[in-house]
Amino acid sequence: MEVTLRRHIAASLAALVAGLGVMTSQQSAHAGSGAPFKLPYRAGHAYTITQTPGSGFSHNDAYNRHAVDFAMAQGTPIVASAAGIIHYAGWSAGGGIIALIDHGNNRCSQYAHLSGTTVSKGNRVAQGQQIGTSGATGNVTGPHLHWNVVYCDSQVSREIPNTVEVGTNYPTGTRPVSQNRLSTGLPGADGERVSDFSGDGAADVLGVDASGNLWYYPHSGAGLATPVKIGHGWSTFKHVMAADWSGDGAADILGVDSSGKLLYYPNNNYKLSGPTQIGHGWSTFKHVMAADWSGDGAADILGVDANGNLWYYPHSGAGLATPVKIGHGWSSFKHVMAADWSGDGAADILGVDASGNLWYYPHSGAGLATPVKIGHGWSTFRHVMASDWSGDGAADILGVDASGNLWYYPHSGAGLATPVKIGHGWSSFLHVM
Predict the structure, then answer these.
(1) Cα-flanking dihedrals φ and ψ of residue 14, to 5°?
(2) Which 3 state secondary structure label does DSSP give 91?
(3) What's the confidence (pLDDT) of residue 6?
(4) Which ranges in 122-246 belong to alpha helices (H)?
(5) Helix (H, G, I), strand (E, B) or coil at 60
(6) Taking 90 as the threshold, does the pLDDT of residue 376 lie above it?
């Protein structure tokens, strides 16, 4: 970390603690004392270590002597190294935007120089849950992540992070690969959270009505609770999706507007924050979906273009990486969905063909395996969605029929069980997810 969190800022930090009252957690623990950490970025990713614990540049004082710096582009998702409760998230002199996670016994993991946080004081977070994005705030010479284990009350450096990947050895210039993903033992074991706006592990229903208002219908037992209006002005959007883009455990909203721009609206405590453009040129796509194809805990984008080709656009930091063609012949499909039907943690593809047959295409390596027919008679349905309504880790099917009734078809082995009606009056909705 470039000349940051040094001893000479102790007074300003103490003033911040006293003035805001945010640095003295009354809650404790979460990860067991001594539990191993994981690297603070998503599974499968690797970033270069630019400063190691005890280095002579700026990691040699009481506040930094155990810290590790990783070079990474601004906007890279930063995830919790271990489960805990957010002790502080906000501005700190020198460190810029920081987050502190309390793991019990006055032991906090520290993440500094962030461009922003997705959590607030008191939030409980799981290991692998996104807490913010990397940046270059505070005293820095370039974007990077400063990561440390400190005493929560003073932020004095406490110990070198002991990780399952590298132990306590962080040689400068190496690029350790993270194993940090959300545990499949958590609610919502599918890991992809399509339409789970509440983050409780079971899908909710969201819809854009005829006036362009965006409504959130919480999952409530066997049906839907009172809807909450979370947006307006969506009537001109060509595609609207709900999936966990941020990797924080709850679905966000993504949409393709009338000009073909792909926009991401973060879920911020059941409200939507201002959009970020993550793509363009989507106006001619017949179908656009958001789901975790890669299995890393954050949604990717999939789309069927005007020629019927199916493309996978990997989630890459704050945007999309180079697309990969994973199928063709989709131009005549009435509905195409992406969700984890198999329950293995990565999305599959489901689609209703021109004859009304419902097909399941298993995710197989970099492409799709032989499809399996799992239903028929879907040709008159206005909307068909795949999401984990039951919360058992595998997607179910929901659909709005010609009369505007909303039906839930439970996933049952290789097919669908008897449907349950969970709503009505959906016939005029422009988008349902």
Answers:
(1) -65, -40
(2) strand
(3) 37
(4) none
(5) coil
(6) yes
Q: Predicted confidence band at 192 (pLDDT cuts at 50, 70, 90)?
A: low
Is residue 63 pLDDT above 70, yes or no? yes
Average pLDDT over residues 136-150: 94
Amino acid occupying residue 370: T
3-state secondary structure of 8: helix
Q: Structure tokens of 293?
A: 């194809």
CA dist 141 to 4, 68, 137, 342, 424, Å?
11, 16, 10, 46, 57
Q: Report the distance separating Cα 199 and Cα 202, nearest Å.
A: 7
**pLDDT score of 30 more than 70:** no
- In three-state secondary structure terms, 20 is helix
Asked if 292 contacts 251 with a C-beta cutoff of 8 angstroms, the reply is: no
Name the nearest CA neighbour of 62 among 135, 128, 130, 158: 158
Burial class (CB in 10 A: 0-12, 13-18, 19+), 379: middle
128 vs 312: which has the higher pLDDT:
312
pLDDT for 189 beyond 80: no
Closest CA to 390 of 382, 398, 400: 398
Q: Which spans in 68-167 are helix H?
A: none
Share of the chain above pLDDT 70, in %: 89
The upper half-sphere exposure of residue 313, i.e. CA atoms within 13 Å in the direction of its Cβ, equals: 19
Residue bearing tokens 């990969």: 324
C-beta separation of 297 from 43 below 8 A: yes
**Listed residue (347, 311, 353, 318) closest to 332, CA to CA:** 353
Residue listed under structure tokens 């032991």: 107
**Cα first-last separation, the chain:** 43
Overall size of the chain counted in residues: 433
- In the prediction, which pLDDT does 399 show? 98
8 A C-beta contact, residue 197 and residue 251: yes
**What mean pLDDT comes out for the span 46-74?**
90
Alpha-carbon distance of 274 to 263, in angstroms, equals 10
Q: Which CA distances in Å does 142 have to 70, 77, 135, 206, 337?
A: 11, 17, 8, 40, 40
Q: How would you class 413 by CB atoms within 10 Å of its CB: exposed for 0-12, middle for 13-18, buried for 19 or more?
A: exposed
Residue 196 has pLDDT above 50, yes or no: yes
Sequence-distant (6+) residues with CB within 8 A of 366 are 324, 326
